[in-house]
Amino acid sequence: MHYYTIEGHNLAEDTIKKSRFIINCYHVENQYEVEKYLKNIYKEHYKATHNTFAYILGEEKNIQKYSDDGEPSGTAGKPILEAINQRELSNVLVVVTRYFGGIKLGGGGLIRAYNGSACLGLKSASFIRMQYSALIEISFEYTYLGKIKAFLDKEYKLKDTIIYDDKVHVKIFIPAEESENLIRNLVELTNDNIHVSIISEEYIKLSYKE
Predict the structure, then answer these.
(1) pTM of the full structure
(2) Is the separation of the CB atoms in 5 and 205 below 8 Å?
């Protein structure tokens, strides 16, 4: 299991027909963080004409919400939400703040402005892949070091340096669904002269999305 999100916080700005659009994009893990960032935006931009937003939470994107904040229904929050979905992202909050410049954009113009602003903010963000992974500890005799290290270097990414004491101990992160296959391969590789334990399972940052 994996999903794509953004890293940290990204700020962008655009001007459309004299209206100023300020775009804040945040990585969020839960509803509490969404509310915290929204509270900060409302405090910072309390004089703004509108503070519209949309967010998606959960690796299955099961929570999707948006707000037009006074703009005509469907012209602000939903286009922002569509921008997030267009990039197949989750655990992301996008807030588009508008300071009205005196020129009305009309319904279609507002949709394009809010969607375009959200896309602009997300375009300059850092995208990351979050992989549901298992942290596995492997312990074995020194005689198997070369064989196991060659296998792991080829197939998996090491988390920590190898620890040497009475035995060799290695920790690696691998996709959780591959745990059973890894254990089976290591048992075959060492004729069952190995100890493998799953320490934890969690989402980890695996790579950047192109």
Answers:
(1) 0.82
(2) no
